[in-house]
From TrEMBL:
InterPro entries: Glutathione-S-Trfase_C-like, Glutathione-S-Trfase_C_sf, Glutathione_S-Trfase, Glutathione_S-Trfase_N, GST_C, GST_superfamily, Thioredoxin-like_sf. Its EC number is 2.5.1.18. Residues 83-206 form the GST C-terminal domain. This is glutathione transferase. It catalyses: RX + glutathione = an S-substituted glutathione + a halide anion + H(+).
Amino acid sequence: MAPTTYKLYYFDTNGRGQIIRYLLAYGNQDFEDIRIPKEKWPEFKKKTPYGQVPILEIDGKPIAQSFAIARYLGKKFNLVGKNDLEDLECDSLVDTLEDLVKRGTNYFDEENPEQKEIYRKKYYEEDVPFYLEKFDVMVSKNGGYSVGSQLTWADFPFVGTLEELENRGPGLLKSYPALSSLVDKVNNLQRVKSWKEKSAQQKKYI
Ligand SMILES: N[C@@H](CCC(=O)N[C@@H](CS)C(=O)NCC(=O)O)C(=O)O
């Protein structure tokens, strides 16, 4: 049987696409890393299932929703919890990540720079610490991982989300040592690290 083919479509940024890139790299899975230039987005958007990316095309079938894709790849690459309760904890964590991201919507979407700064301040002074303080305690209790004292698929959306928050608020993770070391741990997974080193050469553009 021919091997499964994977094509990832996302913007030329990390964002939600990076979660899937890291997971495919971790699983030692070849994939086409296809980037959509901003000017081509309005046209490409019409061809996506729900008008958004990332889209992972699996053997030609386009699939939406980054966290659902992460869960699917986690099953393939043996990154599920040790039991149903740990699987539930993974699901609960990624739903909470979605809540955290949604709370930043007015900040992310605002175009007026003054208003954007007001939203940004509120997000980083209230919403982000509310969640990150709890996450930091959770990761410490779980031996440095998000769930069950070992690597699971949930660590990938978790780290991807934390990296995005840190990109927009440099230095943020310094206040959260357990989160910071989890981000380093995932980035230093051998296959993730090697993929990152050569990722620039592997990008394709539509
Ligand atoms: N729940 C979706 C959200 C996808 C999403 O928000 N995608 C953004 C980029 S991160 C997008 O496509 N924005 C462009 C648009 O909506 O036109 C997922 O997790 O995949």
